[in-house]
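Title: Comparing notes on inverse folding

I've been comparing how different people in this forum approach sequence design from structure. To keep things fair, I'm posting one structure and asking everyone to reply with a full sequence. Here's the target:
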C-alpha cells in the first residue's frame, strides 16, 4: 500500500471513535485489515489505538480537520480500499448505526467519493454482510 499506515490508522480511528466503544470485534477486524493491507498487525493496531487516544482529546471541529488531513494523504488509487476498510470496521459487529453511517459519508467525502456512490457501497455491504441497521 502506498498510503502510510498512520493515515489509514487515523481514518480508522475516526470510525471507532464515533460509537465511543473500542470492541473486541473491532480489534479482530483490525488484525484482518492489517493482513489484507500488508501491514504488520501489531504495529497497525498500536497506531490505530494511539490515533484513537489522540482523537478522544479533540473537539469535533479538530476531529474534522484531523480527518481531512489524513484523507488528503491517501493515495488517489487507494481511496476505494480505504473506504472499504472504513465500512468493514463500522459493520464488524454486524450492526450499523446512523452515527456510523454519517462518519462513513464524511470520510468518503473527504476521500473525494460522491454521496450517491457511498450510499450504494454501504447498501451493498449491509446486504452482503446481513447487518442490522439501527436508526437512532
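Reply #1:
Here's my take.
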Amino acid at each position: 500500500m502506498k498510503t502510510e499506515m498512520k493515515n489509514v490508522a487515523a481514518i480508522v480511528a475516526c470510525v471507532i471513535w464515533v460509537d465511543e466503544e473500542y470492541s473486541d470485534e473491532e480489534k479482530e477486524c483490525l488484525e484482518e485489515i492489517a493482513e489484507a493491507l500488508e501491514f504488520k498487525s501489531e504495529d497497525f493496531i498500536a497506531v490505530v489505538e494511539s490515533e484513537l487516544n489522540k482523537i478522544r482529546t479533540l473537539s469535533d471541529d479538530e476531529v474534522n480537520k484531523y480527518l481531512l488531513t489524513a484523507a488528503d494523504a491517501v493515495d488517489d488509487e487507494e481511496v476505494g480500499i480505504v473506504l472499504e476498510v472504513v465500512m468493514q470496521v463500522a459493520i464488524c459487529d454486524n450492526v450499523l448505526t446512523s452515527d456510523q453511517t454519517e462518519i462513513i459519508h464524511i470520510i468518503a467525502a473527504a476521500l473525494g467519493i460522491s454521496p450517491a456512490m457511498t450510499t450504494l457501497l454501504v447498501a451493498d455491504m449491509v446486504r452482503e454482510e446481513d447487518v442490522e441497521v439501527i436508526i437512532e
